[in-house]
Amino acid sequence: MSGPRLGVTLYSFTPDFHAGRYTLEELIAKAAALGMGPGLEVIGFQSIRDFPRVTDDFVLRFRRAVDEHGFEPSCLDINVDVANRSDRFLTEDELVDYLSAQIEAAAKLGFPVVRSQAPATPAVVERLLPLLERLEVKMGAEIHSASTVESPWVVALRDLYDRLDTPYLGFIPDFGASTLGISPSVYETYRAKGVPDELLDAIAERWDELHTRTFEPGEEIGNLIGLAHQHGAGDHAVNLAVFAVGIHGHADPLAWSEIMDDVVHVHGKFFAIDEDGHDPVVPFEQLLPLFADGGYDGYVSSEYEGWHWDTTSDPFEMVVRQQELSRRILAEHDAAA
Amino acid sequence: MLTDRVIEEGTLLVDEDSLSFDIRIPWYRSLPLSCVEGIEVRVDSTSVPAADTWIAFGDTTYGLDDLAPLYDDWWTVTDPARVRVQAPGGFGSGPFEIDVTLSIRIPYIVERDRRLVMRERCVKTLTPGSGSR
Fold it and tell me: Are the Cβ atoms of A82 and B1 closer than 8 angstroms?
């Protein structure tokens, strides 16, 4: 039966690419050698020099590398850099131009989907639709922690999609928005850096308390920074707050069902897979069957993000484990159907 | 973790009146130079005035005040930038404790019309190498 297909985003290997240990082509080869895929997701402004300008030579080299290693381009992540100017936000016209150039690059590189972000307003999105239709590229707005399917900007897009009824506009759920708690590796890392247990306990309690109510993310990150400073966390305060509230979201996994028909791609975000092949905070056992039963048959990109704090785990090993976990869950689900 | 990479080891050089070293972008992607909102450098706990701090991307050197309008020039994620700080009498021979706080604006994160600026602080003790660059 059809169902979600697996893929990988090269964002998972940011520490290796940033350090210059691998070029883009070497990363593609390495991911293939480790059996990842078949979907391949890339961030334009990470992997491609001078993006969104892509030369014919680069397009050829990229397509050849993708083909040679048996990948299928799944999603090109574009960025809605509304605040790239220091003096003012981009106007609607400027933002349409800024995003059009990136969508055109995606089409040249063979990506069927682009990832958009919250600052692309319904007005901007609607103006991009003719280009998306002409190039046959779908655009999905990423719903990333701490946003949910009920966030005002998401609701505004859902209304737009209801009105336009087009297959070229949709959403990209990021599984980091619906977690069960803060990753154990966050606590392990900061305990090792000397952050006191009483602060880590207080952060865990705060997360549990936020889990029971709606809240304004920016405000709660600020509160948590204050709490961390009270406990002498110093330079660690901001990162701890962002990691705790900003990227470990509270949404009910079942809530993704509300937008299932508009899902064009998925970020299978995770922070660690333990040696038993289990994810302690992202409920893949619940999420993957939910998407399969919902009729989703696009890609789920493995997106490892534990590297933000965990400098000892190997990102490649983590993605291999997560893909094994995903295959096992989907196979068991198929067998039971 | 990328914060720990802001100061690149093995890149410090000194001459009569200045000291220079490479820095890396503490973010996963390339950003316009206009998103570099500030670079605060301390050498052995002494602050260097912004007017005595310079940054070079490729072959082009900028003062810190020059960066704000440059939204169409890019700091590529895999490229180092070169920071140079000056002092009238020089800095001595080292080793030096270099303390850098880099403020970068994340251009796609805006909450209630407020821009997100990350302040990334990296402190390393470096011994000057030889040669010129």
Answer: no
Residues of chain A in contact with residue B35, where contact means CB-CB under 8 angstroms, are 84
Furthest CA-CA distance within chain B = 49
Per domain, the residue ranges of chain A are 5-180+251-336, 184-244
- Which two structure tokens, joined as six digits, stand for A330? 């989907």
Say if the Cβ atoms of A43 and B76 lie within 8 Å: no
CA dist., res. A213 & res. A222, Å (int): 17
Q: Note whether A81 contacts B107, CB cutoff 8 Å.
A: yes
Q: How far is it, in rounded angstroms, from Cα B16 to Cα A150?
A: 60
What are the residue numbers of the active site of A? 144
Residue type, B57: F
Percent helix, strand and coil across chain B, each to the nearest 5:
10, 50, 40
CATH of A5-180+251-336, one of 3.20.20.150, 3.90.850.10, 3.20.20.140, 3.30.428.10: 3.20.20.150
Mean pLDDT of A177-202: 95
Contact A141, A263 (CB under 8 A): no
Contacts with B34 from chain A: Cβ below 8 Å: 84-86
Residue type present at position B88: P
Do the strands A39-43 and B18-23 form a parallel or antiparallel pair, or are they unpaired? unpaired
Q: Which of B37, B109, B120 to mutate to test the interface with A (most CBs of A within 10 A)?
A: B109
Residues A44-69 pLDDT 10s:
999 999 999 999 999 999 999 999 99
Residue-level pLDDT at A190: 94
> Do the Cβ atoms of A86 and B28 come within 8 Å?
no
A96-125: pLDDT as tens digits: 999 999 999 999 999 999 999 999 999 999
The residues pairing with A309 across neighbouring beta strands, listed in sequence order, are: none
Give the predicted TM-score (pTM) of the model: 0.96
ipTM, two decimals, is 0.95
Tokens standing for residue A321 = 């484990």
Q: Is residue B98 part of a domain?
A: yes
DSSP-assigned beta bridge partners for residue B43: B46, B98
Neighbour count for residue A319 (Cβ, 10 Å): 24
Query: Which two tokens mark B1?
Result: 């973790």
Instruction: Measure the CA–CA gap between B28 and B104, rounded to whole angstroms.
Output: 12
Whole-number Cα distances in Å, A242 to A180, A223, A246: 17, 11, 5
What is the rounded CA–CA span in Å between residue A317 and residue A51?
29
From chain A, the residues in CB contact with B3 under 8 A are 239
